[in-house]
Amino acid sequence: MNNKRFIAYFIDFVIMLALLYLLALILPSNQNVGILQNEINDSLNSFLTNKISFTTFINRYAISYHSLMLNVVHINVITLILLFIYYVITPLYNSGQTIGKKITKIKIVSSKGELTRTKLFTRALFINGLMYTLLSIILLYTSSGLSYFLLVSLLAALQIIFILVNILILVYKKNNKTIHDKISFTNVIEGNGEL
Question: What pTM was computed for the model?
Fold first, then answer.
């Protein structure tokens, strides 16, 4: 049964990546983005050829990365909206199913009361990158340079660790209820039996 959850998660992940890729193709390009990407590449090349120290590389990279993220913040905002629509609104109005869950014939249900937008939002915050994206946007305007880079890197690491812990729970626990299931008071079921 857990295989279906993994497959559904993977399908949904690929769908989101495809949507974001199409979005990047459709949106007009920004000349600053190319310049900043070149600065990042130049810093990396300088470090790899021992022209600059690791500390200098990280500082240059962090400043360029922060500027780059400021230039593409509209993409992060659109990503946040797409994540909300796909992982909160879609299952709310589609019997607890995203496209991946529909294909694998599983669905999200509430373990207490009705399946609500709040429960789905809480679930998406932790497992679907909603919190990471939201905090990344907030940090973009509340920190800069190295502090922004370190905080966003820490957030990314925590998101990955959270996902890996949930995978381990699914693999080794009998009740198959992950951390985000418990936090959001939801379950994932197949047919009329619990996963």
Answer: 0.84
- Rounded CA-CA distance 125/83 in Å is 9
Mean pLDDT over 181-191 rounds to: 87
Rounded to 5°, the CA angle 158-162-164 comes to: 115
Containing domain of residue 156, as a range?
2-30+72-194
> For 87, which DSSP code?
I
Count of domains observed in the chain: 1
Q: What burial letters (b/e) apply to 31-69, b meaning 16+ CB within 10 Å?
A: eeeeebeebbeebeeebeeeebeeeebbbbbbbbbbbbb
Strand partners, 188: 108
Q: Are 91 and 97 in contact (CB under 8 A)?
A: yes
Is residue 114 situated within a structural domain?
Answer: yes
- Answer yes or no: are the C-beta atoms of 89 and 168 closer than 8 Å: no
What kind and span of H or E run contains 131? Answer: helix 130-142
> Percentage of the chain with pLDDT > 90?
65
One-letter identity of residue 7: I
Which residue's entry shows tokens 């790899």?
48
